């Protein structure tokens, strides 16, 4: 059993991470599943992989339901969260930061139904007993979650593609500490506005000029490790997630031809973040 469980561990951790948005919590959920597996009557287990998936999902569902209030990350510890293990940053990038952020807005049942069915191809009739719902009801849960993930109708394709490329280039240059590449993306008179919760400061911050804005982005390079592209109200943007929760959003304005960034709005105020529709960029 130990050997078979270890062979399943990477997939189980992947399931738990998408359910919970936190690598530490995912590891705990998988360990709890092992404790249950080790005590189980193995003669009654017909399909070990499916059985372990169900156990991990049940542990995650209980954890999600126990979050009676949304987790609050103190602003003064935000950077400490960003500077966490490299493995979590890589995993968030692999899964998609935007997807983690959207999943965090779903109900526990919607999140379980979507992750198990849409990501890991678990049939609805196998998810139904876990959620104490009918297969048809589980299908509806997954469908609602899918609509949230896709979000509103985005910009027409040419504009979407152009802006998406600019936003990804901005993120790549910031992550790589490439000041010259960043300067090449910014209009000379670009303006950055950041609300008071971003740094934090007593007042909002405004920066003008390509070099000032680029150097500010370089100073926030550690945050870029847990940042990814997303759709904000149908427009390409960047979102940052700490332990699966939305922490910060960057929206952009561009020149008419889309060749340069003319404005950046950085938002961390929770009330404003709550009013944004966030979705995953289409493939």
TrEMBL record:
Organism expressing this protein natively: Streptomyces xanthii
RNA polymerase sigma factor 70 region 4 type domain sequence ranges: 98-148
InterPro entries: ECF_Sigma-70_Domain, NTF2-like_dom_sf, RNA_pol_sigma-70_dom, RNA_pol_sigma70_r2, RNA_pol_sigma70_r4_t2, RNA_pol_sigma_r2, RNA_pol_sigma_r3/r4-like, WH-like_DNA-bd_sf
Subunit-structure text: Interacts transiently with the RNA polymerase catalytic core formed by RpoA, RpoB, RpoC and RpoZ (2 alpha, 1 beta, 1 beta' and 1 omega subunit) to form the RNA polymerase holoenzyme that can initiate transcription.
Keyword list, A-Z: Sigma factor, Transcription, Transcription regulation
Family from the record: Belongs to the sigma-70 factor family. ECF subfamily.
Domain RNA polymerase sigma-70 region: 5-68
Protein's name in the database: Sigma-70 family RNA polymerase sigma factor
Keyword Transcription regulation: yes
GO MF term list: DNA binding; sigma factor activity
GO terms for biological process, alphabetical: DNA-templated transcription initiation
Transmembrane segments: none
């Amino acid at each position: 059993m130990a050997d078979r469980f270890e062979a399943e561990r990477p997939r189980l951790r992947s399931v738990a991470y998408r359910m919970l948005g936190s690598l530490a919590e995912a590891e705990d959920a998988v360990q709890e599943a092992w404790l249950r597996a080790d005590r189980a009557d193995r003669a009654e287990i017909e399909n070990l992989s499916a059985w372990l998936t169900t156990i991990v999902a049940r542990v995650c569902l209980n954890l999600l339901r126990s979050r009676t209030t949304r987790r609050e990350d103190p602003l003064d510890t935000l950077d400490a969260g960003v500077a966490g293990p490299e493995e979590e940053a890589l995993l968030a990038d692999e899964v998609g930061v935007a997807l983690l952020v959207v999943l965090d807005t779903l109900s526990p049942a919607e999140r379980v139904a979507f992750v198990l069915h849409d990501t890991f191809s678990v049939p609805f009739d196998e998810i139904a007993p876990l959620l104490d719902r009918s297969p048809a009801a589980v299908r509806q849960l997954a469908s609602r979650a899918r609509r949230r993930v896709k979000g509103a109708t985005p910009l027409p394709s040419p504009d979407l593609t152009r802006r998406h490329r600019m936003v990804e280039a901005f993120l790549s240059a910031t992550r790589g500490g490439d000041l010259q590449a960043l300067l090449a993306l910014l209009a000379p008179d670009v303006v950055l506005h950041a609300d008071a919760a971003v740094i934090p400061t007593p007042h909002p911050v405004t920066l003008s000029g390509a070099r000032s804005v680029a150097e500010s982005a370089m100073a926030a390079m550690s945050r870029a490790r847990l940042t990814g592209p997303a759709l904000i109200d149908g427009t390409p943007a960047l979102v940052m997630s700490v332990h699966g929760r939305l922490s910060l959003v960057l929206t952009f304005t561009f020149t008419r031809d889309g060749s340069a960034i003319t404005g950046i709005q950085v938002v961390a105020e929770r009330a404003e973040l709550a009013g944004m529709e966030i979705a995953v960029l289409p493939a």
